[in-house]
Amino acid sequence: MASNASPPVCKILDYGKLKYEDQKRKAEARKKQKTIDVKEIKMRPGIESHDYDVKMRAMNRFLGDGDKVKVTLRFRGREMAHQDLGMNVLNRVREDLEDQAKVEQYPRMDGRQMVMVLVPR
Questions:
Q1: CA torsion through residues 53, 54, 55, 56, sign
Q2: Which ranges of the chain would DSSP assign to H, the alpha helix?
Q3: CA gap 48, 53 in Å, rounded
């Protein structure tokens, strides 16, 4: 409605059609937005080189898709006495992914697990 016109002008429209077009516009905006998922990779402190390479390929794929990666290192039994080995594994992951990811949450102990979160650059 244009109230400052002389005489005032009003447009008559179909309210159902207006609601339908608004609903379509909102659905299209929802379709285009990207949701960021958190993918989890689980490792052990004594992980072998081939297993490590397989996990790194998965992390590269997740980061390439724009997802966060949560790296979980699980300690069992006497491994709890050697947490420095787990820290070495997580530091190696961080160095290998330095160009693709940055650390959102640095390694910390959470019960029997050491957790680190990476986000894509």
A1: positive
A2: 15-32, 49-64, 83-96
A3: 9
Phi-psi region of 29 (alpha: psi -120 to 50; beta: other; left: phi over 0): alpha
Name residues whose C-beta falls within 8 Å of residue 55's C-beta, 6 or more positions apart in sequence. 41, 43, 47
pLDDT digits (tens, 9 = 90+) for 73-93: 999 999 999 899 999 999 999
Alpha carbon distance 80, 84 (integer Å): 9
First to last CA, the chain: 48
Q: Is the pLDDT of residue 3 over 90?
A: no
Lookup result for tokens 């002008």: 9
Confidence category of residue 56, pLDDT binned at 50, 70, 90: very high
